[in-house]
Predict the structure.
Amino acid sequence: MSKNVCFLITEHPFLDARIFKKEAKSLHSHGYQVTMIVPRKNGYLLDVDGRIFHDQFLKPTFFHDGIKIITYEQIQPEGQLKNLHYNLGSGNPNRFTDPLTKLGIAQHADIYHAHEFFSLYSGIGIKHALRTRGKACKLIYDSHELEPDPLVMESSNNKKLKNEMLVSMLRETDHVITVSQSIKSWYHRINSTIPVDVIYNSPPLTSNHKPGQGKEKGLTIAFEGMIDSKRGSFEKLMEIVKLSNTHFDLKVRIIGGRKKSSNKQCLRIPPQIADKVEFSGWVSYDSIPSAMQYTDIGWVDLDAEHSLNNRYAMPNKFFSYLNNGIPILANQCDDMANFIHTHDCGYIVKKRQATAADYVQALLQLHSNRKLISDMSTNARNIMETHYSWGQMKKKLVNIYTRLDS
């Protein structure tokens, strides 16, 4: 069995829940020697909430929880698309000169596991270089999102270059892992021969949990993740709370919030609902279930009109809610809607761009039907126990590695 694994990362923080907490530590527990090559910004590593590690993880190479971490100063490959496109077509491994590729080559790993579009590019360069030295390796592309996204605002030339790069890179990729069934189908339309598996962004199963949300007189919405003026629909969320409270008692608990590295102004809570909004702040990965206690509904709002990636998304928060028996309230995003309809574990507002008023109407219906909330809560917890917890996803990950080893 191949034992040496190298994760290639260009954007994510090294403690990212999917990359470090789940995948790297799961592989390590199964006997793999895992190395992660991760970017620094201005000499420092960042935490998942954007906090700068000024006093920790300062050495270029170190071990953390059994995982070897190698660092490099982050580059910005977006501005070099033409050169990267040319390098892929040249067949010359010496043209791959970025630090991630160079550090990856030095590891002589058996399996390389790339986590972004541009780290896949480095993985191709590593594979080429090692082949010239008589070393065969396997390459996994762990596509956390759809890239390039055909609906986002980007120059047509950049989209064309990225699409051509992706087609080229997939020809030399041994296995694709992704996060939704629609993204899996997308890759199979590009390359019908490549193996693709879906590993959802599920957490480990919460222990000693008893579902049954909706028992209090009012309702409490949970929001987990990044929220600022551009992400998380904060203004819409505040409008939902304000409008709902003209009908019934609605509170919101925000688990996460702004990045700590952000210099932007604090999020403004309308004074008339100041007592209805609670910030738990960023909590440790293992503390998320505790932070979600006594919430009734988990909110997900994505712009599915202008992003195919959003339309296909199955985000971390979606499974965190389900893991804690919290029914989902979301707008019309294809994969989340299909999942919710299949398992009867939430409520979908049938609009790709839902307004605050749309969500208020949904909440009024849920508020008046507490048995529905309770039933969806039970369904949510049951499907995590039987099919979708990280324990189940880990088996899929290990099986992929076992197949690549054979």
